[in-house]
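Priority: low. Protein: Glycine--tRNA ligase. Input follows.
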Amino acid sequence: MIKPEDQFKKVISHAKEYGYVFQSSEIYDGLSAVYDYAQNGVELKKNIRDYWWKAMVQLNDNIVGLDASIFMHPTTWKASGHVDAFNDPLIDNKDSKKRYRADVLIEDYCAKIEGKINKEVAKAEKRFGDSFNKEEFVSTNPRVVGYQEKINSILTRMGKSLEKEDLVDVKALIEELEIADPLSGSRNWTEVKQFNLMFGTKLGASADSAMDLYLRPETAQGIFVNFLNVQKTGRMKIPFGIAQTGKAFRNEIVARQFIFRMREFEQMEMQFFIKPGTQKEWFKHWKEARLKWHLSLGMGEENYRFHDHEKLAHYADAATDIEFKFPFGFKELEGIHSRTDFDLKQHEEFSGKKLQYFDHEENASYTPYVLETSIGLDRMFLAVFSNSLVEEELDNNTTRTVLKLPAVLAPTKAAILPLLKRDGLPEVAKQIVEDLKWDFNVFYDEKDAVGKRYRRQDANGTPFCITVDHETLENNTVTIRHRDTMEQKRVKIDDLREIIKKEVDVKHWLQKMN
Ligand code: GAP
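Result:
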């Protein structure tokens, strides 16, 4: 087993070593919080995107897709509230000259208290063994209850102060908790200030006629401004959804934790347009549906939890995060927001165009309410990748590094390996590649001993290794080795397609949502 503190470092180095993620512009020493997806990473990312798209668009007859531009009319961002309110509260440390997000400093402080709770739970679990009741313990143990109350009171106060824009109190909270700069240990802080996260750019050739633009900080607004176009041309009836995947840009100040928080990232968002007054029931529906989508990948129910928001964004009347247990703890993976009619009403007001829906059943027009699901593709990539990377002790006292990616998402589905580089074995193996490549990404490898090749494919996340040996020449059979169990079976070459398909087919995985 890899120790938790080393797991994250291992994830980052494995992602580079096996061609998943590289630092952007590495030859120039890189660009902070910007990353490139390499030959395997691009396939994994595409497979995650497809898995989301199929679940959203292909399987729901009332959800359609869209691909809106990154550039949008600048008034879009005035209307959406991003120009005025898309800010992070920042604080500088006067000694180290480092800049931090004030809310993140406070949240990290609370995470440390949560660490103490987890320690108490682990100790008690050890002491009481099978008779241990975790729920009862955390609700009755005075020390744990005290810790939890402290967390709640800190987060509630922070939420209220941020909501009221009371930045003086946010700083007071940091001082009262005696939070120090994690790098220098200094408590010499500046005031807390708001900082807008949008990147600006210019459209047009000459300086005087150029128009100030923003790179979109979320894909959602492209959906809102196209709402009526899609509704009319697609003859969509409420409730219906519009789904989109694409790049978004944020000038993140605390850009760390690898691809968890990037300055250029990809979102997969779906806006579901509903009748006003039905938002509570749709909020519940999408919370459940999205969690089921995550669970269908089999990455462990215990690694997910909901976190309902205390502080709501300027557009929401309810919001929750699906949090995932990353190597550095539970963090937001996906947001589910009940956005009311805020965005459509704002765009109506700023554009002067009606964005209403005529409901034939009600015989009335109204501005729909919107339920949004929004997940970061890169964050999902990190969740899948970090969860899949394990180091296993084997019976013969050796270890193997294996990337147990859900087979449906794996970049390469099968590696075809001739046992030897002679006796006609490579020719047969290459023929198998030719046959299978129409259906799956497959990989041919004849270099090194077969055991070494198996290990390479394990670390690469390839679910199947198919080995061609001398018996193949006699009876057209090969061995197929399963990455996770390392079990090998002798099967007919003619059956390979079906065997692989059964395990990598999207249908097989997505059906687990039902
Ligand atoms: N349209 C709503 C919206 O953008 P958000 O909570 O700001 O909501 C949604 O972002 C998701 O986008 C997050 O749950 C996260 O997965 C992803 N995300 C946000 N900022 C990110 C960043 N800087 N780097 C990577 N992913 C990010």
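The longest strand covers residues 329-340. The mean pLDDT is 94.
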